[in-house]
Structures are given as structure tokens and as C-alpha cells.
Specification:
Layout (H helix, E strand, L loop, with lengths): L1 E6 L2 H8 L9 E4 L6 E4 L1 H5 L12 H6 L3 E4 L2 H16 L5 E5 L2 E5 L8 H16 L3 E6 L2 H13 L1 H4 L2 E3 L3 H10 L12 H7 L5 H5 L3 H19 L16 E11 L2 H21 L2 E12 L10 E12 L2 H15 L6 E13 L14 H16 L41
Parallel strand pairs: 2-4, 7-8
Antiparallel strand pairs: 1-6, 1-7, 2-3, 5-6, 9-12, 10-11, 10-12
Helix pairs in contact: 4-5, 12-13
The structure holds a DNA duplex.
Length: 421
DNA sequence: TCTGGGGTCCTAGGACCC
DNA sequence: TCTGGGGTCCTAGGACCC
């Protein structure tokens, strides 16, 4: 059996943890640069604020309805997430952390287990230990566990936040109820196509022939159909090791010069490489892109990107930054107002299983240099030690007008409690 | 004036091999 | 009138997820 544990309105709930007065009040959390709405409390959803809404279009509504607006505080969310995941890991070693706010747990076949009770225990423990409300869906496949979680959320009061699908009867009831657009793996592209053939629910999809499903949704769709029928076709994955690592940002103001972009691209590469070394990998290629404001006038737009492939894989930031800058040089065109840039590391190899080169140009000293940099930056704060090319002062501040304190990761931000007599 | 960031998997087609 | 058959690897683009 698989359990899907999903935090309720995760970012909004994280903010509420330290401001309990916001219980029952509308909350939204904004993306970097306070651009879009990326999380909403139930109360904010009820006000009709859509996911991804541009913040500037909703300022008046926020004010009028007294919506609490937060700039995204990822250090806080990441820390709360770790705490939740640690608790979940105590229930089973078979755990897949699927995203910052949800995880799949796998339980061995055992008919005497009371899954309803386990679900309730998980809920209570996480709520008591972290303050985070979660819902739990339990079923024989991951896709059905997703569906069960959906039901647990939709009927939170009746189900007490836990729903279990453990019989053919329950499965049928669930898939007949589940709308096609709420099926895990059916997105906005496939939905209209399937609807055109008269499909409305998850059940309808399970009744279609394999050939039809494959034609419409490829082999992923076939797996989906199996899963909805109760036959596991999607395994628990170990996604602690990434296959690609990206760092991309929209700038607070547009940049026009090569030097500004070079500083940004270098810093993004530094950040990505830190993550790469943390998972003990080297990479062989880096993708670099720059773009102007995509909402701007057609004539003022320019996008370009390039992949630089290295002669041998590396985990040295110094080496990779040189390649990233060379790529940037090739795609940079003066005369445009650039609003976004990013890098993606690709083609990973494990550090201790690397293909070495006979005529290598790699400087062995970089290994200890990187180790020293990571260690110092880890102990004394990000970017305490930088490459010279990064040093452009504070040109890269993000707009974060309503950032909450980093309550759990920064000593000076820890809350003070005044006890009354 | 202002519109996020980070991932995975699949397929088709090109380039190449014998 | 007519030009084989069987493979692999890589990439771009699409679709999906949170």
C-alpha cells in the first residue's frame, strides 16, 4: 500500500505557524520579486484569487479583503519541510519525497494493518510536532493514493483528513467520482482531447482500450490506466539524486550590459554547482539562457540559449563558470533589456565513478579549493567566499517587500516569547 | 512599472554505425 | 521499374508535476 501525505496549503501554512492570529484569515504567498501568487490559504482561494495570479493586478483586492501578503521565504519552507519529512521517515524506510510539501510512503502487504489508524497517527503527530496540517491518502497504487488524498482534502471534515482505498468497491467509488482533470498525469493539453471523446472521469479512462490510451497519452497513459485499475505501474523513486540542476531568476530591473549578465550567470552557476557537489556529482554540460520580458512588445524581445559541452566532466565552479561565460558571450546581443537568465547543469557523473581523461587539463587543486569554499560558505553563510567575477556589489537584490523572518534557520530571527504572570 | 522556479519522462527525427 | 535491414545515440520539443 502507498500513502501520499500532502501538506495543506503548505507555504501559507508555514507563514501561519508563527502568526497564529492569521488562522481563518486569507493568506497569499508571492513568488520571487513578489511577482505571482504561488500559494493561497483556503480563505484566499474562496476570494477567487487564482494560482499564478500576477500580484500587481490584485493589489486592490488584497487591500479590500485584508489579505495577508507574504514574499516567498524558502529557507523557512525548506526547514519546515525537512521536519515533516523526518517524521514521515520514521514510519517506513520506503519513502519518496515527491516535492517540498508531499511524500509517498510504501507499506508492506499486511492485511491486519489498520491504515485508517496509521493515517490518523501521521496527521496527529505532524500537527503536534510541527503545527503543519496534512491530509493522507492510502491506496494500492501511487495514482490511487493521489486520488485518495484528493478525496481526503475535499471531504476533510467527514474523512478527518484521511482516506483509504483498500477494496474494489472503494476503488470503483473513487475513480467514478474523480474528474479527469484531477487525475495525476492528465494535464491541460490532454484534457480537451480526451473530453472530445466523451471521457469525463477517471473511470471512463480505465474503460478505454489500451490502444486508444496509448495513442492519446503514450506509454505514460498506459501506466496511468493500470494504476487507476489498482495495478501498480509506477514505482517508488529515489529522487534525492537529481539528473539536472537549475538556477534561474527574473531580475528586479532589466539589465542591458554584458557585464551585468555575466555577473548573474556566474552567480547562478556558482549556486548550481554547490548543489551538484552536495550530491557528489560532476557535470559535463551547462545550458545558459537569457531573455527579455516575454510580456513586452514583440519587437523588443530576444531569447537565446546555448549548451556548452566540456571535454571532461568537472565539479569545479571555476572551470564551469568559464564555459558558462563563453556561452553567454555567444548568445548575448547588445541593445536589449534582459529580464531573466538562468543556467542548467546536465550530464552528471558520480564523483567516484568518473570517466577520467588521459590528457586531462583538470587542475587537481580545485578539488580541495571547492571543498574549502563549500565548507566556509556552509559555516559562515552563502556567498561569503566568491569568485571575483561575481563581485558586482548588490546589483542583484530581489524585491521582497513582505518577507517574514527566518524563524527556524537564523539565530537573530528566533521568536521571543513573553511569559505573563 | 509590475507576470516564478525547479524538476521528470517520452517521442520523433537526424546522424551515425555495420 | 528499380536503390536493404537492423541498430544506437543524441537532441529538441512537448507534456506533465509541484
Amino acid at each position: 500500500m502507498f500513502a501520499l501525505v500532502d501538506c495543506n496549503n503548505f507555504y501559507a501554512s508555514c507563514e501561519r505557524l508563527f502568526q497564529p492570529a492569521l488562522e481563518g484569515k486569507p493568506i497569499v504567498v508571492l513568488s520571487n520579486n513578489d511577482g505571482c501568487v504561488i500559494a493561497r490559504s483556503n480563505e484566499a482561494k474562496a476570494l477567487g484569487i487564482p494560482m499564478g495570479a500576477p500580484a500587481f493586478q490584485y493589489q486592490e483586492l488584497f487591500k479590500e479583503k485584508q489579505v495577508s501578503v507574504f514574499s516567498a521565504n524558502f529557507p523557512l519552507y525548506g526547514d519546515i519541510s525537512n521536519r515533516v519529512m523526518q517524521i514521515l521517515a520514521s514510519y517506513t524506510p520506503d519513502i519518496e519525497i515527491y516535492s517540498i510539501d508531499e511524500a509517498f510512503l510504501k507499506f508492506p502487504d499486511n492485511h491486519s494493518v489498520n491504515y485508517q489508524e496509521i493515517g490518523q497517527r501521521i496527521r496527529k503527530q505532524i500537527l503536534q510536532w510541527t503545527g503543519m496540517p496534512v491530509c493522507v491518502g492510502i491506496a494500492p497504487t501511487k495514482t490511487l493514493a493521489k486520488a485518495a488524498n484528493h478525496i481526503a482534502k475535499k471531504f476533510k471534515e467527514q474523512r478527518a483528513g484521511v482516506h483509504v482505498i483498500d477494496s474494489e468497491e472503494m476503488r470503483l467509488k473513487a475513480v467514478r467520482w474523480l474528474k479527469l482533470e484531477d487525475v495525476w498525469g492528465i494535464g491541460r493539453r490532454s484534457l480537451p482531447r480526451l473530453q472530445h471523446y466523451g471521457l469525463k472521469t477517471a473511470y471512463d479512462l480505465t474503460q478505454k482500450e489500451d490502444a486508444f490510451v496509448k495513442k492519446q497519452l503514450s506509454v505514460t497513459g498506459l501506466r496511468l490506466k493500470m494504476e487507476l485499475l489498482g495495478i501498480p505501474a509506477v514505482l517508488l523513486e529515489d529522487n534525492s539524486i537529481r539528473q539536472s540542476i537549475s538556477v534561474t531568476r527574473t531580475f528586479e530591473h532589466p539589465y542591458t550590459t554584458f557585464e551585468e549578465l555575466r555577473e548573474r550567470v556566474s552567480t547562478f552557476t556558482v549556486m548550481a554547482m554547490e548543489k551538484l557537489r552536495a550530491q557528489h556529482h560532476s557535470c559535463r554540460s551547462i545550458y545558459v539562457f537569457i531573455r527579455t520580458n516575454r510580456f513586452g512588445d514583440e519587437s523588443t524581445q530576444y531569447n537565446n540559449q546555448m549548451v556548452a559541452i566540456l571535454p571532461e566532466s568537472t565539479n569545479s565552479t571555476i572551470v564551469l563558470v568559464q564555459h558558462a561565460i563563453a556561452a553567454l558571450q555567444k548568445i548575448f546581443k547588445p541593445g536589449y533589456r534582459y529580464s531573466k537568465a538562468g543556467v542548467t547543469l546536465m550530464q552528471f557523473e558520480e564523483d567516484n565513478a568518473r570517466q577520467l581523461q588521459l590528457f586531462t587539463t583538470a587542475d587537481p587543486r580545485h578539488i580541495s579549493l571547492m571543498r574549502a569554499m563549500d565548507s566556509i560558505n556552509g559555516n559562515f553563510g552563502q556567498q561569503k567566499i566568491r569568485l571575483a567575477v561575481q563581485d558586482c556589489g548588490a546589483v542583484w537584490k530581489m524585491k521582497q517587500a513582505t518577507l517574514s523572518p527566518r524563524y527556524t534557520t537564523q539565530l537573530e530571527d528566533i521568536i521571543t516569547i513573553h511569559a505573563q504572570e
